[in-house]
Amino acid sequence: EGLEQVQPNYGYLQEHGLPQLLSLGPSRYLRLRRLHLLRAALAVADHRHDTVMAIAMRFGYSDCGRMASEYYALFGEYPSATLLRGVNG
Questions:
Q1: Closest Cα partner for 76 from 25, 50, 39?
Q2: Maximum Cα–Cα distance for the chain, whole Å?
Q3: Three state DSSP letters for 30-64
Q4: Nearest-5° angle of CA 48, CA 52, CA 58?
Q5: How far apart are CA 34 and CA 6, in angstroms?
Q6: Residue 42 to residue 26: CA distance in whole angstroms
Q7: Which end of the chain is more exposed for a tag (fewer CB within 10 A), N or C?
Q8: Contact, 38 vs 60, CB < 8 A?
Q9: What per-residue string of b and e applies to 20-39 under the rule 16 or more CB within 10 Å gives b?
């Protein structure tokens, strides 16, 4: 599970009109999808053994500051809070 699973085929997206249907450009769609997948991975991770940075790197993030800012803007909490809270929080 990583970035290769997050990046759909652009030709397929354009052909089927998904960005237009969602009123999103392809890059915005991919950014949002990757953030949602990151959130799901953080929610099921074990905060005693995993770190936000390690999980984020699996999804292709190298600038954790920017990622955390985008994450907070979308979800209203920082990635570390999701990791600590987990699925049941």
A1: 39
A2: 44
A3: HHHHHHHHHHHHHHHCCCCCCCHHHHHHHCCCCCH
A4: 115
A5: 6
A6: 24
A7: C
A8: no
A9: eeeebeeeebbbeebbebbb
